[in-house]
Amino acid sequence: MQSEAISFAYRSWRRAWRGRGKEYTSGVLVWQLNDCWPVTSWAIADYFIRPKPSYFTIARELAPFSVGIFRTFYEFGAMQSHDATIDVWATNSTLQSRHVKLELSYHDLNSQWTASETHDVEILPNQSTELLSIRCPGPPTQGVQPPSGDPIWTPSYSVVVNARLIDEDRGVLARFADWPQPYRYLALPDPDLAVKVDGETVTVSVGRPVKGLWLSIEGEEKVSWTDNCLDIVPGDPQVVGAKGLEGRRIKVAYLGKERASFI
After folding, report:
1. Which strand (E) or helix (H) includes residue 4?
2. More confident residue, 236 or 147
């Protein structure tokens, strides 16, 4: 919960640095770094200086390049909506513009439906750049009874939207997955996790989308993870460094399976 709330705030504030004359938010102070005794708090590292999920989401939001999605919809019932749209933007804190590919992929949690599209975009220097504002795609509705009885509706209420910025030379610059909300109403599929360990490098791939994947080990010896608390979709494996892993088994937890277990 802390990770989701803080990352949303940082993403929104950074988006507000919109260029000359529109610098509506110029920065944010991280509060607080760590706990001074064992306690539940809004710190991003615990008493033992172990990073919490929010530590990693803040790091991703403050990277030189980032991408964000905001979903706007009119909701009826618990989940269904119509006229859902997504706004996509990118941020670039360097002093050079960058021509990249914006790759969007769509994954329905309630079926096997997927879709994707790619756009050539320019990310302006030292500001955020609005890239797209489109209707959120979803599974075909032909022959499907509208959940509310309203013939004007969209099935995007169960669609995960994944965005990646891809540079020709550097590969994936940034990624972000927008999940439908509220999370408690989602019918979460088995992600069909596949984790490959090669020394101190961990590669994670999935058959279905997974949210908030948390990697950990058992015992007191620490592992320094280069990233964690991951949202992963099919076709986009993520590679994480694990300094100090030393052959130990990895435990995983994620939304819908909050109790960590060995893989």
Report:
1. helix 2-15
2. 236
Mean pLDDT throughout 109-136?
97
pLDDT tens digits, one per residue of 16-64: 999 999 999 988 888 889 988 899 888 999 999 999 999 999 999 999 9
CB 136 within 8 A of CB 130: no
Element (H, E) at 54: helix 53-61
DSSP 100-131: EEEEEEEEESSSS-EEEEEEEEEEPTTEEEEE
Consecutive H or E run containing 10: helix 2-15
Distance separating the N- and C-terminal Cα atoms of the chain: 24
**Crossing angle between the packed helical segments 53-61 and 2-15, to the nearest 10 degrees:** 10
Query: Which has the closest alpha carbon to 49: 29, 62, 33, 32?
Result: 33
- Report whether 65 contacts 174 (CB < 8 A): yes
Rg of the chain taking only CA atoms, in angstroms: 19
pLDDT on residue 202 = 98
* pLDDT at site 185: 84
